[in-house]
Hints:
The structure is a single chain. By secondary structure, the protein is an alpha/beta fold. The chain has one domain (2-224): Acetylglutamate kinase-like (Carbamate kinase). Helices cover 42% and strands 16% of the residues. It contains eight helices and nine strands. The protein has helices at residues 22-33, 45-57, 62-84, 96-104, 120-130, 164-173, 186-195, 208-214; strands at residues 2-7, 37-42, 109-111, 135-140, 145-146, 158-159, 161-163, 199-203, 221-224. The strands form two sheets. The protein has a seven-stranded mixed beta sheet with strand order 3-2-1-4-8-9-7, sandwiched between helices. Strand 1, helix 1 and strand 2 form a beta-alpha-beta unit. It is globular.
Amino acid sequence: MKIVVKIGGYAFPSKLDTAGIEPYAMLFSRLHREDHEILVVTGGGEDARKYIRVARALGANEAYCDQIGIEVTRLNARLFISKLGGEAHPDPPTNIHELTQALATGKIVVMGGLTPGHSTDAVAALAAELMHADVLIRTTDVNGVYTGDPKKDPKVKRLDVISSDKLLKMVLSGEFWAGCYELLDPVAVKIIARSKIPTWIIDGKEPANIEKIVRGKTVGTRVTVEA
């Protein structure tokens, strides 16, 4: 399979250590040895938000703040590469041309952001589109898409399946996840819809959930796209 995994910011807390990296890297290594093609996109985590907040307070414009966030995501990508060693492409791609070249090596590709204004969700969707991925797995710190924010309202329900159209409306409303409850961003959802990329939104705090999706099991929320 061709697999794209977006690792959410939860894996990169301010007190960074190996615990948020090693289990995932070991899983990706094992899947790669089974001849799966693996591409990983890393988020920025708490450090990215911290740097952006300080830069904004110092007068930086939003484009420059985006660039700072991108640099942090690439540092996070290098942490994965450090663990994967020779199984990984040695540098995070910084543009589509470099991404295409990295994929051609047959190694695990780990990357962060690409362009100011595009989130790492959008990067993951674009990469999945480019490589004709069999599945895009978006990991979060909750176990799927809910009818509201599960961190604020215990009565909300998790959705086993959601259409890309409905997900886009939820994302654009912005009312469900101010702060910590993260979903795919609008650009990512539109890319998923136009290329009909099979997509799952899962609890990534348990790396085994990623493997369950690869093995054809049901975890989290599946995003459907109309033919």
